[in-house]
Amino acid sequence: MTTKLPLTENEKQQREINRVASQNARFDMESKEDMPEGFTIGYIGNCSSEIDDRSWVIFRAHPGRIGTKEDRVGGYSTQERYKLRPLINAIKFAHNLV
After folding, report:
1. pLDDT, tens digit, for every residue of 15-63?
2. 75 close to 49: Cβ distance less than 8 angstroms
3. Quick check: 30 and 22 in contact, CB under 8 A?
């Protein structure tokens, strides 16, 4: 019988990094094809080799006018964009798409 040792702090951090990367990869694959009509996913901000300050949001269509704060939902960093998934599900639920 082998005894399992507790995880070190580095191992815990690596597991969390892997979990977030996996969630974001899933979000990137599923989110674009899963969006209800009239909604899109995008970001506000900049990305360069030194910094990524993008804020990922869900935008509501606003044809014929400039978008406002009321036209967007969310606002998660690039590392946490997978957290938009529950908001997508809520939009689909509100439109009877689930």
Report:
1. 999 999 999 898 888 877 778 888 888 888 888 888 888 889 999 888 8
2. no
3. no
Torsion sign (Cα): 14, 17, 20, 25: negative
What angle is formed at CA 92 by the lines to CA 89 and CA 39, rounded to 5 degrees?
100
Report the half-sphere exposure of 33 (CA within 13 A, side-chain side).
4
Number of domains within the chain? 1
| Rounded distance between C-alpha atoms, residue 65 and residue 21, angstroms | 36
| Rg value, the chain, Cα | 18
In a domain, 4, yes or no: no
Q: Quote the tokens at residue 45.
A: 């901000």
Q: Model pTM?
A: 0.72
Residue recorded with tokens 């690039």: 78
Q: Which domain holds residue 24?
A: 9-94
